[in-house]
Write a structure and sequence with these properties.
homodimer; alpha/beta; Arc Repressor Mutant, subunit A; Aspartate Aminotransferase, domain 1; Aspartate Aminotransferase, domain 2; 3 domains; eight-stranded mixed sheet; three-stranded antiparallel sheet; 14 helices; 13% strand
């Protein structure tokens, strides 16, 4: 029923649905009219009698509407004078984002890094685990819970990490976090000071998490250069010892000792990002650095690679001296990670479904790795490939005279997504020319197709 | 099979289960022995031949164990000399927490505030919603997702908040957070500067979230004193206009305008904590302050009261000018709230189960409120009760001459949990003597029992 006001009030089109509650409709439409500026600040409202007549409603209904909108601050009225739109009203609309450029055609093969296979995420297991938790958890588990993390999950993680990563800790020193990123941020803020970071590595991520400057320290075939670290003056370093990100180098035994000795000497701390150590192919995984020096190493882990990034579940294993401060920081940050998600993860660990999923994924990634290596060996034999001991990415070393950016651009034209090492270097140096070939979310078929399409670009010209 | 080493190596008891993989067992036990200090730093290990003989294993197995532990840094060996425990090993055990004092006997009735009924948490609805999401979500939803929040949830929240809270926003200005606490922290860190807070109110919470000093501003029967706010010099204030926490006062219309005018005048911002507005009994809820001045008010909401605190889901509705900065802060904090939980909430909204749960809870809380009021009227008629227009707590004003702390202590002896207003005052002033009686997680039976047990304590002596 369209109604046009005139004379005593502003022009306003109102549509009422006579089969639904009328007062709520009138109220809502007046509020929207004020919020969108159709009724402007200071404007005189029609009298309740006039509006009631227009709308064919009782005057009482309109009076109630006006009273409600007055209590909320949209209308003002003084004894003996007309009701008006309040003058304090304002409108706030964001500037619309610029239209996106025409979308590029979809890629035929893409080799991004750091993402596991999303199509094989354990959907059914997760739904099952959440249902089990909702069915069996005590009422109290629906409360805020322990900001440090559910005690049961901290116990289970302690045992699991000892078993598979030789981590040496206890539930009191574990904090459950919203993924790796939150754990890193909490720890770096507690530690403070300049933070050293592997170069190439996650320079940008660490810098953002630290909220301050980072000091890049070079990585060679043995892992991080501990001499250069010592010379940097930093007393905190973030490292990926089991499978350096992104070079794939494993930190050599002598360097492991040197790194721990450095931390002891300068009263410093080592933050160990153990991001993909579950996926090791040729031999069993190198145990965590944390187990060697639990008083000097903070171990950070996540299910983003083993289950799915969408779950945002991770943990920090802390030296006793830091546990209280990091728990306090976590409590201030968000009062704890979602409790039901934590208990669902416990259920996956305890039922053996976590391990089963890992075994399945390890077999799949190992097969992809073989497909990648054999495709490169066959089609681009001059390309050296390294970093494949674990995880789901490889480094392709381009022959001399082949420029990283050229290869990436030419591959994009053939609808293949390739990514260069230069973006992980603190200086963005394009040399030596290397590609970081991720295959976590890239099927065997896509790998074959992709390498087939770009093999000639990778070879010596 | 217990084995004792002697002669060439340290004494070490090892138990091997011959039916399970042996190499992993030996490795694990050696690692644990080193981590726990049973094998000390620098100690000489038995030769691989000797250990193999002792354990009745092939020498190759022991050599593999030693090689693995050497790669991990637990052992060191130089050509021509014995393998030794690395000298960089250390042990880190937290000081055990002091034993808890003997537990107090359980309460017969407890009146804590700020917690909804945990026994009525929508377990089945949540499990169903997660299953629907796991069944139907696109593969890409298992990736990191949008740090600002799932676009679908931001759309649904925009519509829902417009409908029930008269919030005026769009999806581009909404950020999904890990509960109220995270939203508050992100917003206050972006805004910076001293933060004004209602007194009595959540002084401690806000101070922690702000990471700095707060300025208490008195609350009277009309809500926050805007004159005092203006005099404080702060340009950011955190308020609870719909149902002041904890006094239960509704911010008066004139004060709503004065508050918005204050923000405009000093280029300041109002953070609106809309914590329990879904539960309003006598009339429809007062619309949010945010709708009046979307460019000056940050609206914070949560499902902690409507569904359960364990879910850790909330949102911030932002002025356009702040949206980009808060989204960036959220991305750094944790790369976004768990995606599947967000989509499950969408499913609850869209299926109508969210509204249905709210209706059910509203009826239940209204019944408890009636039970509380009638018990107090009958048994402690001299106690004035206020703040009951919404939510699930009330303020009991104790008669002159009755001390808050005495009542609380005496009630505790009768196994009834009562909580005083003084803890919410910046000065902890015990006067006027008032109790904050929460009944969100207190059954009707408990309310009757509890008030029966303490009524004489509340009355004029």
């Amino acid at each position: 029923m369209p109604v046009e006001w005139s004379g005593s009030g502003p022009q306003l089109l109102m549509e009422l649905d006579r089969s639904a509650p009328l007062r709520a409709q009138v109220e809502e439409q007046l509020r929207t009219a004020i919020q969108t500026g159709r009724l402007v600040a200071g404007e005189r409202m029609p009298s309740t009698r006039a509006l009631a007549t227009y709308l064919r409603l009782s005057r009482g209904v309109i009076q109630e509407c006006y009273a409600q909108l007055q209590a909320e601050g949209y209308l003002t009225s003084r004894a003996g004078s007309a009701t008006r739109v309040a003058t304090t009203i304002s409108i706030d609309r964001p500037t619309p984002a610029p239209l996106l450029a025409a979308e590029a055609p979809p890629l035929l093969a893409d080799f991004p890094s750091g993402v596991p296979d999303l199509g094989l995420a354990p959907r059914a297991d997760w739904a099952w685990a959440v249902r089990e938790v909702c069915r069996t958890a005590a009422d109290a588990e629906f409360d805020y819970g322990d900001a440090q993390g559910a005690p049961r999950l901290r116990e289970v993680l302690t045992g699991y990490l000892r078993r598979v990563r030789a981590v040496d800790t206890c539930a009191a020193n574990v904090v459950v976090c919203g993924g790796f990123q939150q754990g890193l941020g909490l720890v770096l803020r507690v530690l403070g000071g300049p933070v050293a970071v592997e170069d190439p590595g996650s320079v940008g991520n660490v810098t953002r998490a630290a909220g301050g400057a980072t000091v890049p320290v070079p990585v060679d075939e043995q892992g991080i250069d501990v001499g250069a670290l010592a010379a940097s003056g930093a007393r905190v370093v973030v490292v990926t010892p089991a499978h350096q990100w992104p070079t794939g180098v494993v930190l050599a035994p002598a360097r492991r000792h040197a790194l721990v000795a450095w931390a002891r000497e300068c009263d410093g701390y080592i933050v160990e990002d153990d991001y993909d150590a579950e996926f090791r192919y040729d031999r069993e995984p190198v145990g965590s650095l944390q187990g060697l020096a639990p008083d000097r190493v903070i171990g950070l882990g996540t299910v983003s690679k083993s289950l799915a990034p969408a779950l945002r579940l991770g943990w920090a294993v802390l030296p006793s001296a830091l546990a209280t401060a990091v728990v306090a920081a976590k409590a201030v940050a968000d009062r704890g990670t979602p409790q039901l998600d934590q208990l669902a993860l416990v259920t996956l660990f305890e039922s053996g479904r976590y391990d089963r999923h890992l075994r399945r994924m390890r077999t799949e990634y190992a097969a992809r790795r073989d497909v990648l290596v054999s495709a490169l060996t066959r089609l681009a034999p001059s390309v050296r490939v390294t970093g494949l001991a674990a995880g789901f990415h490889a480094i392709a070393h381009l022959p001399a005279g082949v420029a990283e950016a050229d290869v990436i651009a030419a591959a994009r034209e053939r609808r293949v997504g390739l990514y260069g090492m230069s973006t992980y270097r603190s200086t963005h140096d394009p040399s030596p020319a290397q590609l970081v070939l991720g295959f976590g979310n890239t099927s065997q078929h896509e790998i074959r197709t992709g390498i087939g399409l770009v093999a000639d670009l990778l070879s010596r010209r």
